[in-house]
Amino acid sequence: MTSHIATDARANLVGSLWMVGAMALFAAEDALIKAAAAALPMSQILVVFGTGGAMIFALLARAQGLALFPRDAAAPAVRLRVVFEVFGRLFYFLALALTPLSSATVILQATPLVVVGAAAVIFGERVGWRRWLAIFIGLCGVVIIIRPGGDGFSALSLLAVAGMLGFAGRDLASRAAPASVSTILLGLYGFLSVIVAGGLFAIYEQQPFQWPTRSGGMALAAAIVVGIVAYTSLMTAMRTGEVAAVTPFRYTRLLFGVALGVIAFGEKIDGATWAGCGLIVVSGLFILMRGKAARKA
Known about the structure:
The protein has about 300 residues and is mainly α. About 80% of the residues lie in helices and about 0% in strands.
């Protein structure tokens, strides 16, 4: 019995370390995308980023003997996931390019709040009044960061909100996707969705693709590699430790994102952003703890 507990504790520790590493890499990916956006059209970034990621995931899928487009890949939930992925990726990448990295990262952390609330409405999952209150408080944190109607309000901050809602929809659709569609294939379809997002935005942007500068090309290439490693680390974390033990460490992405925003891009974090950040994190952690307690009951 003691050995079993020790094994679980070790698995949770290892899984948590993988999660922290994944969040650090995702924050680095965001910073690299923001750096590349200073030199390249956003549509080109989306297309190249999506193509690089899709090629790597396609190779991984074939190495495991998986058909790239099995029959279940046409399931309604998978198609809906693609739509939300296009929406989320496009608006979040635009947020990275046009708004501070720190604020975009903080707003993204509200995704689990939206997922829990929407899952209660769509899938009928039980969410008590305490978790509904926590969702409301966390979303109030997003409003504090955006500051609608205030002197510091920028309509561009709504890009991060739109991206966050897109990712929440993607996560909900992932829950409904057939189990036969593996994580690797979902990753492949996710990156193919990024290509679609880039193509659609190219029509709007009306900017010709250009040969990247050395710095822009290196930043974009590094973002692709870092993004793949981050995704792999995230999957490893979720499969190593217990979900309830590992998931809270997702919020370390906020720390890494804010730190990179301050160090790499000279951003300044004001009191309202810190307050909103605190509300989002505390609400998210409370929801995770209440969910764990409800499963044990």
